[in-house]
Specification:
By secondary structure, the protein is an alpha+beta fold. The chain contains 3 helices and 8 strands. Strands 1, 2, 3, 4, 5, 6, 7 and 8 form an 8-stranded mixed β-sheet that branches. Pfam families: Lectin_C. It comes from Mytilus galloprovincialis. Residues 1-18 form the signal peptide. Residues 27-144 form the C-type lectin domain.
Length: 153
């Protein structure tokens, strides 16, 4: 009986891991890709979409901490899916048009410095916190792909 339970647990774990492509990291019900090259926000978003994914949408503190733990392995700043380019001060997830229900802004941010900061980044000196930045900056990015049939439990 114990042997059967171990086989079932291994099969379940293996199924979760196999749902993410090589080079992507599984967390909860999504797979994430952390780039090691730099691009603008728009080009980063297009790169994610070419892989049937979107720039990462962070919905909980737990997800934010997972993102941070992976970013620290690579270092640097990373684009997320957030933007207020459509309506200044109204931050939303570009892939869904939904407002940010969860946020983790660095104190004093977002500040739209020089009236040109419309895209969301995290990492670097901000660590787990977020900052608004010019979308034309060239930084790393995080793609997120929701699992179609996640194995939970």
């Amino acid at each position: 009986m114990f042997y059967y339970v171990l086989i079932c647990l291994f099969a379940c774990f293996q199924n979760i891991v196999c749902q993410c492509q090589n080079g992507w990291i599984h967390n909860s019900t999504s797979c994430y890709y952390f780039s090691d090259n730099t691009k603008t926000w728009d080009t980063s978003s297009a790169s994610c979409q070419a892989h049937h994914a979107e720039l990462a949408v962070i919905e909980t503190n737990e997800e934010n901490m997972f993102i941070w733990s992976e970013m620290t392995k690579l270092g640097g700043f990373f684009w997320l899916d957030g933007t207020d380019e459509f309506s200044e001060g109204q931050w939303e997830w570009a892939s869904t048009g939904e407002p940010l229900d969860y946020s983790n802004w660095f104190p004093g941010e977002p500040n739209n410095s020089n009236g040109q900061e419309d895209c969301l980044l995290t990492g670097g000196v901000y660590k787990t916190f977020w900052n608004d930045s010019p979308c034309s900056n060239q930084i790393k990015y995080i793609c997120e792909k929701k699992l179609e049939n996640p194995v939970i439990g």
